[in-house]
Design a protein that fits this description.
This protein is mostly helical and about 170 residues long. Helices cover about 75% and strands about 0% of the residues. The protein folds into 2 domains: about 60 residues, no CATH class; about 100 residues. The radius of gyration is 23 Å and the shape is elongated.
Length: about 170
């Protein structure tokens, strides 16, 4: 009877470990076989990390539809509308929208540690400066300057989002 209880406990521990590995709460390392008692502190750490991760997710503006629309949806709409207006208006609209998105990313990174926000925040702020410089013809990006800037906004922002979270996960701290 005692051996059956140990087998159930061991199975439960393995399933719990698999769950944590699946959700990337703990690293998937091979290591050597250890006794269940030696792994218990690791499980405690995993539970603390998971509750911390849940705390991060609850603070994340990207995860909440309403805050996502306010922080990134509205500036995205402004960027699209800016395509159809004169260059001076586009300069004001795009610079404002990019600054809005950049600041929202930096605030979100500080709030919850969202990985891509550490990269896209400064990226959007730098692009806002480039938009102003191009729009005021201080820096000339050529005949297709606005097209290049639009591609940099969409493709660059998307690539930073995808690649950083693919490499380091959704949350950098936890």
């Amino acid at each position: 009877m005692f051996q059956l209880s140990d087998n159930v406990t061991t199975s439960r521990g393995r399933l719990l470990r698999l769950l944590f590995v699946w959700h990337r709460s703990v690293p998937a390392y091979s290591g050597t076989a250890t006794l269940q008692r030696e792994r218990e502190p690791d499980h405690d750490w995993s539970l603390q990390r998971m509750s911390s991760l849940e705390s991060c997710q609850s603070k994340d503006w990207v995860s909440d539809r309403r805050s996502y629309v306010m922080a990134w949806g509205l500036p995205g709409i402004i960027l699209v509308v800016g395509v159809f207006v004169d260059p001076l208006s586009r300069t004001v609209m795009w610079a404002g929208a990019l600054a809005w998105k950049g600041i929202a990313c930096l605030v979100n990174a500080a709030r919850c540690g969202r990985t891509h926000c550490y990269f896209t925040g400064p990226y959007f702020l730098v692009l806002a400066i480039v938009v102003v410089l191009h729009g005021l013809q201080i820096v000339w990006l050529g005949e297709y300057g606005w097209v290049w800037l639009g591609l940099a906004i969409v493709a660059g922002g998307g690539a930073l989002w995808y690649l950083t979270e693919k490499a380091w996960g959704n949350f950098s701290r936890g």
